[in-house]
Write a structure and sequence with these properties.
By secondary structure, this protein is mostly beta strands. It is built from no helices and eleven strands.
């Protein structure tokens, strides 16, 4: 079992920044990847960004050049730095991870609200 705990959500004005952090209960090298998804009201959950064990990153087009995913191996955390936030970024952000057997795990989510 892998536990994921998110932190760092909140309310920010458009154009502002927030940094989300996800702490995993296992060493990152026991995971194939970690990442962030988001779900806005009335919409499906969508991938935001992922980082693999080999440091490959992937972003949804709508956040490229604004969001950066990074990891801290010593702390077993993955951060999402979000700059230039837009009202359409408002959503609950979920941390996601897959272990080396590709079992999927989710955090409880953290709310990000961007006011116009």
């Amino acid at each position: 079992q892998v536990q994921l705990v998110e932190s760092g959500g909140g309310l920010v004005q458009a154009g502002g920044s927030l940094r989300l952090s996800c702490a995993a209960s296992v060493n990152f090298f026991r995971l194939n990847y970690m990442g962030w998804y988001r779900q806005a009201p009335g919409k499906q959950r969508e991938l935001v960004a992922t980082i693999s064990r080999g440091d490959s990153t992937r972003y949804v087009d709508s956040v490229k050049d604004r969001f950066t995913i990074s990891r801290n191996n010593a702390a077993n955390t993955v951060d999402l730095q979000m700059n230039g936030l837009k009202p359409e970024d408002t959503a609950v952000y979920y941390c996601n991870a897959a272990d080396i057997r590709w079992r999927n795990y989710w955090g409880l989510g953290t709310q990000v609200t961007v006011s116009s």
